[in-house]
Amino acid sequence: MHTKLLMNVSAAVMAVIGIAATFAPQEMLERSGAHAGFPAVLLVQILGAVYLGFAMLNWMARENLIGGIYSRPVGLGNFFHFAIAGVALLKMVLNGSGRNAAIIAAAVIYSALATWFGAVVFTHPTAKTQSAE
User: Fold this and answer.
1) In 10 A of CB 39, how many CB atoms?
2) pLDDT attached to residue 115
3) Does 112 map to a domain?
């Protein structure tokens, strides 16, 4: 599996979300239809910091072999993040409350990354896989 590509893609996705949430929380809230009051803005900015931290973790770990026992905490953290958020987004799309292009795109991206991280974390890496990256 191409874990370097996976880590680059996940870092980029999280960095984009993190930068937007950190520097444009009011705009994100207004676009989603939520009230952009102080507590919500603060929570979105804190969430942006989490996303940027996770993006930096993925970027710094991109050269490591992810899977098996190697970098397992990084892989599991990413798997759980993308899987839980992906399920929540899919649930939103399927119950009809999230039928806009952004929610559907996020559901697809999160589900794909959850599947990819799941395949990496729950299979054993081989020397051939490592050298192919």
Assistant:
1) 8
2) 97
3) yes
Give the number of domains in the chain.
1
How many angstroms separate the CA atoms of 5 and 13, rounded?
A: 12
CA 8 – CA 116 distance, rounded (Å): 13
Q: What is the mean pLDDT of residues 84-96?
A: 94
Sign of CA dihedral 55, 56, 59, 65: negative
CB atoms inside a 10 Å sphere around CB 54: 21
Q: Do residues 78 and 117 lie in contact, with contact meaning Cβ atoms separated by under 8 Å?
A: yes
- Write out the two tokens for 99: 């039928």
Give bridge partners of residue 118 from the DSSP assignment. none
Q: What is the pTM assigned to this prediction?
A: 0.86
**Helix H segments across 24-100?**
25-32, 38-60, 72-94
Structural domain boundaries, residue 88: 3-126
Question: Does residue 133 surpass a pLDDT of 70?
Answer: no
End-to-end Cα distance, the chain: 8
Please report whether residue 131 resides in a domain: no
